[in-house]
Amino acid sequence: MNPELSAILESLIFTAESALSTDRLCELLDEFDRDEIKSALSELVDYHQGRGGGFDLVEVAGGWQFRTRPVFHRFITRHIKTRAFKFSQSALETLAIIAYRQPVTRAEVEHLRGVDCGGVLKTLLEKHLVRILGKKDIPGRPLIYGTSKEFLEIFGLKDLKSLPTLREIQALDEQPSYERQEELQLEPEKSLPVESQLSL
Amino acid sequence: MTAEAPAHREEHLPLLDGLRDQYSVHLDKFDGPMDLLLHLIKKNELDICDISIAVITRQYLEFIKLMKVLNLEVAGDFLVMAATLLQIKSRQLLPLDTEDEPEAEEIDPREELVRRLLAYQQYKEAGMVIGARAMLGREVFARTATEPLLAAAQNVEGPLEVSLFELVDAFRALLQRIPAESFHDVAPGDSLSMADCINEILSLLQEQDTVQFDDLVSDEPTRERIIVTFLALLELCRLKLIRIFQGGGHGSIWFIPAVPADTPEVDAP
Q1: What's B249's domain CATH number?
Q2: What CATH number should be reported for the domain whose range is A3-72?
Q3: What's the distance, Cα to Cα, between the start and end of chain A in Å?
Q4: How far apart are CA B48 and CA B60, in angstroms?
Q5: Chain A partners of B149 at a C-beta cutoff of 8 Å?
């Protein structure tokens, strides 16, 4: 639509230190309409996807960012040394319960998992994946927990609504396996471990 | 159900032996009583909504017994679930008051357990789905490391090389932190030599890849110590034995060996 605007947006996102939100982009580019910017952004997304390059433009945690394609991670890690988080099954379960049921208290998480979650919760808090939202107005005033912005960033989610719904996850069992990756938008590589885990 | 029971028992014993062989693997896998229950239900190919409490309870209790045999501490959570299962089982054994049920409003513990199991299974799967997503820093990389934790873990990668001015600045800031009129004895025989200090820094750098300026003088924050350390660092820099970095903005100053893994002998001045 507006090739110049696309180029401007691309340059802004490229140089930004962290993800730029649509609001921030509109603020920076006040000579353009919000709608114009939005459509230019989605065009850029399509452009990068269609290009088949090493990275894509993605919207994570409410901001726009260039991110590499997962298929190239084994090459990238040859050069970039990161200390990626390793999640235990209990950490993932706890994280899932908090993500889907937030705001949630520790007692509620423990009731669902049937096991003490203090240690796991502490680790998740330390990793900034979970944050304390406040205190619940019930006797004892327990702390309530929710997921953080880092959670969305690390798992590449636009917002909490883009988590697969529990109904979708439940439907996995009934659907033939080849449809699983479609539903979850997982990378082809990653769909294999899921299946093997599910069939434990 | 009673006719089935012996068959199940026989089936179950070899399983127990199998578990004994590789208990560590199996026990690690169970993330609490709910996980163990789900495993038992799947193994017996039961439907969660229609579980045979008798079979599951027996297998569950045998599992707990096994944990005790292996001298593992059985967590209280497992015992709570055992009690719940036994409660449900005993309820089933009692004759039902079919005509008028005074406890109709009371929650059936069996239904409650089924509900919890279904919910747990759902979140367990959700956890796997989340864990299988392409993760930032594992499969996906952003152009700049936005993750603060990741950045913190890579102190050596991020910082810029510092100028002499910044080093002097850090030094001055450090000097300001110690009390100016600190009491000190003049002990000429025991004064710190620069050569000692250089060797100290170099041996420290052999142990760890990076050393922080503040750490060097934290043991003994006297004016003399700081000044000697500073001079030693300048000398090491001149000899091109170390490289100096500063963590973003006005962060702490770090040192790394200029030639890693092979530190030459120093000719102390």
Answers
A1: 1.10.10.580
A2: 1.10.10.10
A3: 50
A4: 15
A5: 127-128
Predicted interface score ipTM higher than 0.85: no
Triad B212, B217, B219: Cα angle to 5°: 115
pLDDT in tens, A74-126: 888 888 776 667 788 888 889 999 999 888 999 999 888 888 888 888 888 88
Residues B122 and B38 in one domain: yes
| Chains A, B: CB pairs < 8 Å | 163
Judged by CB atoms closer than 8 Å, whether chains meet at A87 and B131 is answered as: yes
Q: Do B144 and A115 touch (CB under 8 A)?
A: no
Strands B253-257 and B211-212: antiparallel
Q: How far apart are CA A99 and CA A95, in angstroms?
A: 6
**pLDDT at residue B225 is higher than 50:** yes
DSSP strands (E only) in B153-205:
160-161
Does A180 lie at the interface with B, CB-CB under 8 angstroms?
A: no
- Residue keyed to tokens 């043991």: B219
Residues B83 and B158 in one domain: no
Domain presence at residue B264 = no
